[in-house]
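Hi R.,

Here's the chain you asked about this morning:
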Amino acid sequence: MRALLQRVSQASVSVEGSVVGNIGPGLLVFLGVGQGDTETDACHLVDKVSNLRIFADRVGKLNLSLLDIEGEALVVSQFTLLADTRKGRRPNFIQAAPPEIAQPLVDSFVLGLREAGLKVETGQFQAHMMVKLCNDGPVTLMLDSKE
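And here is the predicted structure, written out as tokens:
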């Protein structure tokens, strides 16, 4: 699984003109599920996302986690994170898991964040979504459960 994290002061996602998820300070998480990913990958990323120290403490050091600041998470499924762009000009998405495998793992990731005590909003699986965000920092990180 791959997660692209963006630290935000606010973010929202809309489907067909209606907001389906909206958060204040926290993390926008674009989540891609790959072939062969399992619940173990989802659990690993839940732990990393909720505990990664990427928020500033009182002296400006990146010492606090999403849990520490009682931040929020907006999770948006994004199979394009698994794109292979090494050959040609058109991305290849063969490494992305099919929807029947990906959706339960995205749901498991969201549930794991909620069970950790975080407020979590989501996009809509397999929908065309419009994402608005206000980057904070900016701080943008890529996580891969296989690394």
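One quick note: Strands lie at 2-15, 18-23, 26-32, 55-56, 62-64, 72-77, 119-122, 129-144.

Cheers,
M.
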